[in-house]
Amino acid sequence: MIFRPIPKTNELIPVVGLGTYKNFDVATHTKSREPLKEVLKIIHQHNNAVIDSSPMYGSSDSVVGDLVSELGLRKLLFFATKVWIQGKAQGIARMEQSFQRIKNEIMDLMQIHNLVDWQTHTQTLQAWKEKGRVRYLGITHYQKDACAQLETVLKTKQFDFIQLNYSLIEQEAEERLLPLAQELAVAVIVNRPFAQSALFSKVRGQSLPAWASAVGIDSWAQFFLQFIVSHPAVTCMIPATQHPHHLQDNWDAFQHPNIEPHTRQQMIDWLASI
Ligand SMILES: NC(=O)c1ccc[n+]([C@@H]2O[C@H](COP(=O)([O-])OP(=O)(O)OC[C@H]3O[C@@H](n4cnc5c(N)ncnc54)[C@H](OP(=O)(O)O)[C@@H]3O)[C@@H](O)[C@H]2O)c1
Fold it and tell me: Which of 74, 89, 129, 271 is at a distance of 20 to 30 A from 221, taking alpha carbons?
């Protein structure tokens, strides 16, 4: 597995983590939790893998907390969740709830979800970081229209992480945000690495090009993820899945070296041609 450093501290995290939107929003005591346990067993095999949740994702915070406790994996993961509400008191209450649901006393990363009331929550989180309740602060969005605002926020230099959408069909972050994150030593988590399945729909019925197989890419998921990681500003990606074999596929992409820059351009050209 390839690891990359969080720029501000040099702490290493695997380039592939796990998103929990929809896939971890499952009911208590249902058999839908069983495959998620297998997913968690795979992600803990490489120390410090990011698991990204949010109170916006229904029961995800609770399901992460319950299953990680049940499996005894707490010390091996890097926990990221979010605050997604207006108001200082409301933000504090929701974040306290996430601490309880995930069952952590210290959160590795607390992110302000979709920029909601970010000035207010940043004040709270700076104070919590000083007290050691959160280790890193982040800010997120998932749409190209937010790039300009994310850029302004990043320039305030208050954030350790930015989470943004970036993929073969959502490349807008390359123009300014990714270079800015590099310049300011901000870690980048990529959400929607498959554009929420739109990339799979785009290549449906197509075989992998021979030049991709020749560089060790064995599936479409690996093709899409290798493109993302080949950008040097990217610290990690968080594809969501509820299927252990899909997670294994996503992780297998990084058992061999990254693709070369010319393969990256081949990927862009090939996708544009279909
Ligand atoms: N504003 C924000 O902060 C924000 C916004 C969006 C997303 N996020 C975060 O980013 C995460 C990822 O984004 P996303 O969930 O929207 O979409 P995504 O990761 O781009 O796509 C998820 C879809 O890909 C499928 N998939 C995963 N691995 C696969 C594989 N190897 N082969 C085939 N299909 C595969 C999953 O289906 P299966 O379950 O069947 O595998 C699922 O339908 C979220 O879960 C969330 O944690 C944050």
Answer: 74
